[in-house]
Prior knowledge:
- The protein is of the alpha+beta class.
- It is built from 17 helices and 24 strands.
- Strands 5, 16, 17, 18, 19, 20, 21, 22, 23 and 24 form a ten-stranded antiparallel sheet that branches.
- A hairpin with a 2-residue loop joins strand 20 and strand 21 (about 615-625).
- The longest helix has 20 residues, at about 50-65.
- It is globular.
Amino acid sequence: MKKNIIISSLFLSTVMFAQNKGLVANSQSPYSKLQSVGLQDVKWINGFWKEQFDVETKNTLPYMWDLYHNDEVSHAYKNFEIAAGISKGTFKGPSFHDGDFYKIFEGMAATYAVTKDKKLDAEMDKAIALFAKVQRKDGYIHTPVLIDERWGTLGPEEVKKQLGFEKYNMGHLMTAACIHYRATGKTNFLNIGKGVADFLYDFYKKASPELTRNAICPSHYMGIVEMYRTTKNPKYLELANNLIDIRGTTNDGTDDNQDRIPFRQQTTAMGHAVRANYLYAGVADLYAETGEKKLLDNLESIWDDVTYRKMYITGACGSLYDGVSPDGTSYDPTVVQKIHQAYGRPFQLPNATAHTETCANIGNVLWNWRMLQITGDAKYADIVELALYNSVLSGMDLEGEKFLYNNPLNVSNDLPFHQRWGNEREGYIALSNCCAPNVTRTIAEVGNYAYNISKEGLYVNLYGSNQLKTKSLNGEEIEMEQQTNYPWDGKITLKIVKAPKDLQNFFLRIPGWSQNAEVSVNNSKINDKIVSGTYLKLNQKWKKGDVIELNLPMPVELMEANPLVEEVKNQVAVKRGPLVYCLESDQLPAKTSVNDVALKLNSKFTTNHFTLNNRDLVSIEAEAFINPNNSWNKTLYKPLSSKDATSVPVKLIPYFAWGNKGQGEMTVWMSH
């Protein structure tokens, strides 16, 4: 199918810089209904996300920056120095080390956009100068290959390394370079990104079929589209189309990598969840530029498959450490393929053995954010919020210096096997620390998800106390203050500070989880029908001092799963607002497992504020039953008995905060 490729001349004008300053520079994307506000346009002023941003700037970002400069631990920065010829040595660490450093860099650039901290700017310039020394004249940059090239030890390993995480690393470089340009106005890193994009354009034109086979974890799809949006070089959009065209056209493709069949034949989520979500995000970016209907049709079909059959209640993705695809149809190894970190079958959602890699959950945010941009449909913002508050934040401790690779929904001491990835956060996850840099950049960028602008008006996507200073599409200033204690409280106040004459519409997201929402403008209640899971359109001539109040009741809700989810049949989870809650074993009598607890459904559920590791949180207190006959030693089955069951009070805490009090058990789902 021929794509409608938008051809524009190459330029980096002042106008482009003014318009394209968000995470995705889609101000001129013809098939994007919503457009990003600038990286610097939103500042958290208090409350939940201000606390999280403070943790980011004071703890997480400096910790990760120092860690990746520490060659005794990560060797990432050292690899660049060796590749540049500054010092001698060999490449050490995972092949995706370069990309992880670029992620941290991206987080630093996004943070600089808000804080304008000159120290961050100086650190970035120093790193960029090193990247420039490493980059080959043809634009190529990938330290595992360049180190061997420099020291004459590359040999036949080049092909193997190029089929590894080479393009993933380059993709994160291009994305980071675009964010840096928008945050600083400098072109020093963007020029390196252009070199990479030019190299990839030539590479995919000339390389052998073995080398053009899609690289794993395709972050370069998002990266190359951002390079097109930033520079308007039509070659980059041509390349983005080509990357989709070549998927599934070789005989060695795999479902693990989503390239056994062409993308335009894919209608369900398959394979490695991180790679899948990155692919879907990149395809959404491409659709925003070309409007090819087949791409959007497939994305919507895949989204339905994930959201209604393969996603956890926390917004987490990728249920299985290992699976097969397709399942059970043949013993022919060319048909049945092993899938690592797999999406799995529909409704296959184990809890204790859930893989749910933090990067996959971040990929879910990246994908849904882009779906929101191209459709304006609030259901995608619901998933962004769900994942951010639950399965993304759970990937980091409350103090921002320890991280999780996977995010299980149950941790049990009695599991008689050792899981590949631990259930305790670590400062550095040897050989697989990719998630920590990803959380680092994601938390720095949450503010950019809060609002969108469009031809119709201003969209409010996420709630949190902040100041918005941005511009309408014709350049008029928009200023607004948001005050709320969300997600602990559903009362949100939006005060208009400055509104242009042409801006008459505000669109408030009414979360899909909410019921009986109420809205008033200047103390006058809005009587229009308010529908959960949509944007409420408020139309009038706005002036300074106008106040919009949104009240979202936040009762405690008991959730059940589709009965086809066998693992949690006849169990309940507890949710309040956007937050999923969990039970930890420190709330139970000694020698009692979380798996022995049955939640009392008619409990008087009460909420209470508490502090944990200097963070203000809200707990849910309830009653539960514990059967004293809870020994399962050498027992697989036994008669059901509720005799002598005792009632005990339990305190549930937000899922993202589990594991911050030392080792112990945890569960999201409970019997009743």
